[in-house]
């Protein structure tokens, strides 16, 4: 990207009315808002409306695969699925599915992969974005594990969810863990 394009992007999008401020913790909303206004209110707004996104990713007609090979002791398998933007009504369900698949020792992928010494753990990340994003499932390989085998098992678990759904107990546990994690994060 040229420096001219970078400057154009900066001059178009880096404005106070296109920023997000996050306030976390035990605070009084009126005081917090006053602090934010004092700190950021002096910055000018963009003199015209912030442009909407004008690009849209083309329809995906099949899987995309990327293989990165570098000198390392252990590999990782990452599986990504397209998901809707964070404001979409289905986004919370996607986040709970990620928790059911990977959060904790009772998660489906932990039992199917990590308990069999094929990975060192499992994790999932859901993009919380204004635009459509990706849900990522990370499967760091254990010594001697095959990326092909780990990928195959992970995809089988995803297909099993698609075919059989999730149990009420799995969903209840995922919701409870998510709420507990959010509570603990607020206490930090």
Under CATH at level 1, the class of the largest domain stands as: Alpha Beta
Average of per-residue pLDDT values: 89
Indicate how many domains the architecture comprises.
2
Radius of gyration: 21 Å
Q: Helix count, per DSSP?
A: 6
User: How do the strands of the widest beta sheet line up side by side?
Assistant: 1-3-2
CATH homologous superfamily name of the largest domain?
Metalloenzyme, LuxS/M16 peptidase-like
Strand-residue proportion: 5-15%
Query: H/E series, N to C?
Result: HHEHHEEHH
* Major beta-sheet overview: 3 strands, antiparallel
Instruction: Give me the CATH architecture of the largest domain, please.
Output: 2-Layer Sandwich
Shape: globular
Number of separate strands:
3
Looking at the structure, the CATH topology of the largest domain is Cytochrome Bc1 Complex, Chain A, domain 1
Q: Which segments are poorly predicted (pLDDT under 50) over 5 or more consecutive residues?
A: none
Structure description:
This protein has 188 residues and is of the alpha+beta class. Helix content is 41%, strand content 11%. It has six helices and three strands. The chain has a three-stranded antiparallel beta sheet, with helices on one face. A hairpin with a 6-residue loop joins β2 and β3. The longest helix is centred in the last third of the chain and has 20 residues.
Brief summary of the model shown:
With 188 residues, this protein is α+β, with helices and mostly antiparallel strands. Helices cover 41% and strands 11% of the residues.
